[in-house]
Here is the input.
Amino acid sequence: MGLLDNKFAIITGAASARGLGKATAKLFAEHGATVAILDLDEAAAKAAAADIGERHVGLACNVTDKAACDAVAAELKAKWGRIDILVNNAGITQPLKIMDIAAANYDAVLDVNLRGTLYMSQAVIPAMREQKSGSIVNLSSVSAQRGGGIFGGPHYSAAKAGVLGLSKAMARELAPANVRVNAICPGFIATDITGGKLTPDMLTSIVEGIPMGRAGEASDVAGCALFLASDLSAYCTGTEVDVNGGSLI
Ligand code: NAD
Here is the structure.
């Protein structure tokens, strides 16, 4: 018996092979969920869904496009009859210093990380309200908490801090409908968002600053998402869970 048997889950930005979304999708599938993998590229989303098993679906969805979010949620609700879980995972970073952030940089980072979280949540909330159950898990970041992104830039820190505020406000508003909203704050996790941007020296110095002495794995975040998505966390809402190897101690 899986922790997510008979549950239907949507995960945004989950096509990236080494990403947190794909690892979460795989773990949810292993625990019995049927998963929709959303991402910018339809072929990549379909391939990622096929990779975790045949009952799963991959769909193109740009989370900054409200109409696209609404259309995908409507399609999945019609197919499944319900939507139990949403993981707002899609995100982008830009390694810029404060004076280098142009309006277009600010808009792009805020749009994907924060506006996308709102739009996709708005797309599934009516179904969750109707069912009187649901779990929304939002990906924030240690960058929101320590005000410094290794790669993200100040606008990324601002967007991810916004995700925390939005999560708590949604949690408060939706609690009477038994829809829970929680956030995960990953520390340094080795994925494409971090890979390729670091020299070996930078990597060594980052890991030296982590009390547990290692970078996180995508599976570390997936495990936390499984807890928050499942009934194991039935009385948790409005929380933020740090998955950072002790980086804030
Ligand atoms: P990743 O780059 O591997 O994956 C992000 C995915 O989002 C990609 O597949 C990309 O195509 C997709 N995406 C980008 N813009 C999109 C859009 N407009 N609509 C839909 N999909 C879009 O990144 P990751 O490391 O797996 O990060 C996942 C989440 O975790 C992000 O929100 C990120 O900010 C957050 N996070 C990551 C780390 C880390 O160290 N890796 C740390 C803290 C927080």
Notes: Residues 103-131 form the longest helix (29 residues). The mean pLDDT is 96.
